[in-house]
Amino acid sequence: MTTDSLPAWAALPAAILLIVGGSLAFIGALGLLRLPTFYMRMHAPAMGNTLGAGCVLLASMLVSSALLHRLVVHEVLIALFMIMTSPVSATLIIRGAIYRAGINAQRQRQKLEPS
């Protein structure tokens, strides 16, 4: 970092964004641990961690732009990548679980049917 101090107009919103982002990520992690079913457990981290990381990236953009005295947008690429990949990966995991549950149910029915 440089020896410049961070101006208050950038420090306060960045601190708020970091607190909100950390809280959202923590809530997502708690949801992963505490929710009862697999499908409910998938929703909490997919939403909470994506939004939490988005807040942290916004704070990083704000602080970097303030320190360098120019607009820094590298974090936008990271945010776009996360927004595109997180819901898609969660959907694929859930579809795999649904498929697996269907196969297991079909096997159970075959065991119960008399030959």
Please give a structural write-up.
- With 115 residues, the chain is an all-alpha fold.
- The chain has one domain (8-112).
- It is built from three helices and no strands.
- It is elongated.
- The chain starts with 7 loop residues before the first helix and ends with a helix.
Key features of this structure:
115 residues, mainly alpha, 0% strand, elongated
**Count of individual domains:** 1
Secondary-structure element order, as H and E? Answer: HHH
Beta-strand percent range:
under 5%
Total number of helices: 3
- N-C termini distance: 74 Å
> What's the story with the biggest beta sheet?
none
Mean pLDDT: 87
Number of strands: 0
Radius of gyration: 21 Å
Element layout with pairings:
Elements (H helix, E strand, L loop, with lengths): L7 H27 L3 H31 L5 H39 L3
Helix pairs in contact: 1-2, 2-3
Q: What can be said about this structure in brief?
A:
The protein is an all-alpha fold. 84% of the residues lie in helices and 0% in strands.
